[in-house]
Every structure is written in structure tokens, then in C-alpha cells.
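task queued by scheduler; priority normal; single chain, no ligands, no partner chains; default sampling; output format set to C-alpha cells
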Amino acid sequence: MKAHLTRRYQFPASHRLHRDEMSDAENRDVYGKCNNPHGHGHNYAVEVTVSGQVDAKTGMVCNLADLDQFARVNVIDTFDHANLNCLPAFAEKVPSTENLCIEIYDIFKRGFTRAKVEKIRIEETSKNSFEYSG
């Protein structure tokens, strides 16, 4: 029997949406107020959905403590209160929430082996959310 588990984590971070290859006017047209030279912040809510067989002994898809520890060490500790523009993961790409979603998915896909990573969902604001499933 396959079941899904979704766990939510939160962290604040800042970013500026900007491409050096584009003119200032193009950046303002494409990114609007998100191109503020000083950046801006969000309180991101990240949902990680994993799946697997329900263990007959524990009754769980995976141990929440294992999932929480992986998320803390590999995601929260990296992104919490960070300026995303300054992180190596975004050296070559715009730190949009779409790209953040892909980055977090890849982190879980590479390292979390206790259940299958199905998708990552990020709420950036009460109006914006993003999902990535590989």
C-alpha cells in the first residue's frame, strides 16, 4: 500500500530578481518591484511530499524525525535568513521561487533515501505558490 506524507517547513529569506545580461529597464519591465536593488524578503513555507509503502511495523511511510533532520541540515540551515542571490546554487540563475523550488527538490532527490520524493511546494506569499515534481 503506497501512501503520501507531506511535511511543512518555514524559513525567511531575501532575494532580488535580476539578470546582469539585461538592461536596467528590461529588468524593471520583467521583474517589476521584485527587481528592487536592495532586494526583498519572504517568509517561505516549503512543503515536502514523499511517498512509499506503509511500514507494517511502524505504520508510517517514513520516520518524521528523519525527514525533519534532513530538512533542517540540508535546507533550513542553508536558506534560513539567507540572501538567495549570494548562495552558490544561484550563482548562474535567478533566485526566483520557481528556481528555489527546483533546488530544494534536487536536494531532497539527491539525499533523502527513506522515501520517494514526489514534489516540493513553496508558498511565497498568500497569493503565490509554486510546485515542482521533477
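post-processing summary
- The chain has one domain: 2-132.
- The two ends are 23 Å apart (CA to CA).
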